[in-house]
Amino acid sequence: MSKKEAIRLEPVLQEKIWGGSRLGSVFGYAIPSGHTGECWAISGHANGDCPVANPEYAGETLGSLWKKQPELFGNVGGETFPLLIKIIDAKDDLSIQVHPNDEYARVHENGALGKTECWYVLDCDPGASIIIGHNAASPAEMREMVEQERWTELLREVPIQKGDFFQIDPGCLHAIKGGTLILETQQSSDVTYRFYDYGRLENGKPRALHIEQSLAVTQAPFQPHPIHRETVREGGAQVTRLVACPYYTVFRVEVDGLWEKDWDQPFVNVSVIGGEGVLDGQKVKKGDHLLLPAGYGKMSLEGTLELICSHL
Question: Which of 47, 54, 72, 119 is deepest in the core (most CB within 10 A)?
Answer without folding.
Answer: 119
